[in-house]
Structure formats: C-alpha cells, structure tokens
Specification:
Shape: elongated
Number of strands: 10
Strand content: 25-35%
Number of helices: 2
Amino acid sequence: MAQAQGLGRRYLKAFFKGFFVAVPVTVTFLDRVACVARVEGASMQPSLNPGGRQASDVVLLNHWSIRNYDVQRGDIVSLVSPRNPEQKIIKRVIALEGDIIKTIGYKKKYVKVPHGHIWVEGDHHGHSFDSNAFGPVSLGLLHARATHILWPPQRWQKLQPMLPPERKPLQREQE
C-alpha cells in the first residue's frame, strides 16, 4: 500500500512539473509564433469564407513573420480594430507608407499613407469596415499575417499575396 502511494505521488509530481513547463511554453508559442483563428463575416469574400454563412474558414496566423512590421502589398493580415481595441479584424494590405492610394468612400479621394502606417481593405468592398472607413492604420496595430487556410479541408491552401489590379497605389515611395 505504501509503495502504491509513493508511486501515485511520483506520477502526480511528474504531471505538475510537466504542466508548469508546458503551459508557459504553449502560451509563448501562441503569443509570439503562430495561432489559428476562425474568420467570420463577408468582408474578405471571395478569398476567405467564399460560401458565406454556411462555413467559416480557419486560418493560420503567423505572428513571427511580422515581428519587424515587414508586410507587403497584397498580404492578408490580422490587426487590432482601430475603432474597438478588443476586436481583431482581418484585411488585405493595399498600400504601404509613402504610397498614394485612391480611396473608396473615404473623406478624401486620395490619401498618402503616412510613415509607420498601412492602408488595408476587405476584398468585398460593399461589406467591409476598413481603411476606407477609418483611414490609414498604424503598424503597431498589426497582429499577424494569415498564411494558410486550415479548415475546411477542401480549402487547404497557402495564402499568396495578391493585390487586385484596380487597387494598386497610384504612386509608390522609392523602395
């Protein structure tokens, strides 16, 4: 009996040691490297959620790839909403700092994206709350880059940076 009690204690001690190592490692990984997220809404159709409300895409969000705010035109990114800091939104990068962009319904017809900012838009213009509503977005609000669609299985794919031809910047800062 005493031997079984000692064995139980050993297993319990090993479990807690593993638990107290695994939890911080997992939290750090999810916060700094990558995580998965479900995409809701129609703002990124047809790239994400092409079926509408029937099914939501689940995407891999890579935090590590944007740690130096290195984004390109056409990337799909997750960012903290400029209007509601408790909400994350997913949009496509249309213009980088220094670019001049023709807006769609913003208070100015043309905007030069300021230093430290990007211009983001949803692919479904009529159903997107994006830079055309709130203006250029600070790079500090970037959360992650969406790199792959993980669910549903028939949509597994790597997300390629793609900029619609009609949304290219009018003028670009020297790169």
